[in-house]
Amino acid sequence: MQNSFIKNLKFDIPAGLVVFLVALPLCLGIALASGAPMFAGIIAGIIGGVVVGSISGSPLGVSGPAAGLAVIVADSIKQLGTNASGEFDMMAGFQAFLVAGVIAGVIQIILGAVRAGIIGYYFPTSVIQGMLAGIGITLILKQIPHALGWDKNPEGEWEFFQTDGHNSFSEIGYAFENFTMGAVLVTLIALGILILFQQPFMKKNKVLSLIPGPLIAVISGIVINEILKSYFPEFALVNETEVVNGEVLENNHMVNIKAADSEKPYYGLLTFPDWSILKNPSIYVIGFTMAIVASLETLLCVEATDKLDPQKRITPTNRELFAQGTGNVISSLIGGLPVTQVIVRSSANIDSGGKTKVSAISHGFFLATFVILLPWLLNLIPLSCLAAILLLVGYKLANIKLFKKMYHNGWSQFIPFVVTILVIVFANLLWGIVAGLIVSIFFILKQSYQNALYSKFIAKQEGVRNTTIIKLGEVVSFFNKGNLHKKLSEIPENADVVIDGRANKHLDYDIFDLFSDFAEGAKNKNMNLQFVGFDTQRSEKLNNFANEIVQLMNTQTKETQRKLTPEKAQRLLIEGNERFMKDEMTQRDLLEQMRQTTDGQFPHSVILSCIDSRTSSELIFDQGIGDIFNARVAGNVINDDVLGSIEYSCKVAGSKLVVVLGHSSCGAVTSACKHVELGNITTLLKKIQPAIDVVAPKVDDITAPESVQMVADENVKHAIEEIRNKSDILAQMEKEGEIKIVGGMYNIETGKVTFFE
Q1: Nearest 5°: phi and psi at 563?
Q2: Residue 459, φ and ψ in degrees, nearest 5
Q3: Domain ranges of the chain
Q4: Is domain 558-756 classified as CATH 3.40.1050.10?
Q5: What SS3 state is found at 659?
Q6: Beta-carbon neighbour count of residue 676 at 10 Å?
Q7: Percentage of the chain modeled with pLDDT above 90
Q8: Whole-angstrom Cα distance, residue 238 to residue 88?
């Protein structure tokens, strides 16, 4: 064990150094976004590395202040620091907020103790993604003023929200009207560097991939501002103080870390909770909200980090919640921001070759060492440079690809996602999560309402009663009563009705009562009613109301086939194709159809189609087992074997309709037009030549798509004539009206079949 520890140090220490370089600017940037003292971010980074890293069971996860909590922190500090007269004191708000941080940590410890590590699975993905995207958009909105150099705030305190009654959007407007050229320059160069370091060629280079982009962006900001101080002082960024209408305003363009007591430079940077706030009920709401959001963000990061781990180790989630809770309690007690496991740091750790938790712990010690030895260097960092880093962090949380992905996942995912974002941006995070959950629950109930049962209606044919089949899902509750009542009321008189409960495991009494009432009324409507698949007691009671038990009539029988005319057979195909195009295909019990056709088949039509994989006649015409004969050959050409098959289907098996079905973009027709010659294919394609001979004189290019389609149409017509000319049996049957021979063209883009004779 000791040998393994020493062996991994050569990987973990360099990785910890890289993570430290990535974490330093993010700690400051997230503190800026949170409206908290800048040093609070450094404290959180140190605690996240040393304390959480030591307790956590995650081998590669790295914790620290998280962008995902910045919105909650900023909202909470503003709420807790504003008194009854509307005056805002940031430090008072921050000290009160630290109490909420302790409460959140205690809740996380309890969650870990009661083994609630699966809590993340109880929140819909759409809401979680919406939460992260909403946080990202809020970060972007709040950092635009800093990026433009609009850094004024009252009384010289660090404040995320302005207290002049304006919102984020009006502040952005002021920022564009009062931008600072030096800040804009620093922001643009920092963004350029960050985007450059995101490019694939940078990540693939072994040397460049180890250099953290945020660190280079910060260094560039310091260097640019120092150059401006020396050569263009009018554009340089400094901390300025001015008095406007008797009010002290600080235009703090720079990081400003300073101790309250100059004789105690490090101890003076610590801030302690104001426990008097415990009598305020809102502090517990804030603490609970932070605990849930921090836990969710941590658990999501844990899952992502474990997937990135080359050794595929699994992090114990309950222990992770305990570690995060402990870290949050300690961080809040000494003036630090709340912490979570963070994917940016964790992925940097993995990419840098970290092997064990030592890399995360060492990164915390590197942060502490830097603050002790070089604290003055932090005050040289322009806020606009940190804003650039946060703008990119915000975009990663709310990027365009995420919106496209959620949209393609369907409305049930996209709408809760969007609602969560909008409420977060225009209200707050807690209400955003609540709104997203409510919308998600609505879609769940709606889906349950729709999926608990489905019905199919078999259209009435001459001499055959209508058949309606209603299949019940596993759980049918009172939520489904309205939908079921509607379906039952739409069933016509003189129908055969089957209620199929074979898949049902739970049926509310409300539904049972509805079925009983329907069965009683069915006697007055001349319905044949059957209940299938219910337990013995329920089946006997329900079937006592039925007029008689009938078998499901869902396939062609000899009697129904005999009563069909060729025209009615064609109508069945037309109606089936319409259902296919509308995606309203009949829900069939194929196994039942298979059993019913065991003793014989009585198809109403025979269809000669192409071998093309996109032209399955059963699907195109929405037909079931035993409904049609289906002959398939490339180019739907006629040969002796095909002709014999058609004669059998009509003369022997009793089919009433012959359909030659071509299709658009036919490969066989295209090959014939291009005069392809290859083995036996050559012989087959020659059968299409008569159609080519008809079309060729009418067009300039026989291989053009429109010309090929003309050949396909002509090929169907030629096949029809071949059937009539080469089969005396079929010609005679058509003459006597026993059958009908038609052609059809299937459009593979629209799904529509166009018939012609």
Answers
A1: -80, -10
A2: -60, 150
A3: 2-398, 402-451, 459-543, 558-756
A4: yes
A5: strand
A6: 13
A7: 40
A8: 24
